């Protein structure tokens, strides 16, 4: 079965479910949503997702948005074992720690950095701030 997936490519929350779908062998019918053109506000998209957010997944007559919920759904609905999302509580907690990391510090850094780079023509990042952000990202290495 092919699932419809509404997304924007540069969004980490959109890419997470895409990676999980690939790992599970799920084919996604990728449908880009251009937020700058306000496509998320078009009546046909609002009919699918009244909160007009991406990512949004449509699996037959079931529609879901929010990346973490989509990831959980894909694993629960299509996962053949617990290799991606363990059933052991301690192992699952370690996966959850990384799964939810972006809800705090990471998302704050990303939003700040993207706004500085894309919206501020003459802005620069202070060397101390750049080192701090780099150190936080190295945590994943």
Topology:
Elements: E1 2-7, H1 12-24, E2 27-32, H2 43-48, E3 56-59, E4 62-65, H3 67-78, H4 89-99, H5 105-119, H6 127-138
Parallel strand pairs: 1-2
Antiparallel strand pairs: 1-3, 3-4
Helix pairs in contact: 1-3
Quick rundown:
This is Glutathione S-transferase 1-1. The chain is of the alpha+beta class and 141 residues long.
Describe the structure.
By secondary structure, the protein is an alpha+beta fold. The chain has two domains: 2-80, Glutaredoxin; 104-138, no CATH class. Helix content is 49%, strand content 14%. The chain contains six helices and four strands. Strands 2-1-3-4 form a four-stranded mixed beta sheet, with helices on one face. Strand 3 (56-59) and strand 4 form a beta hairpin. The longest helix has 15 residues, at 105-119. The protein is flat.
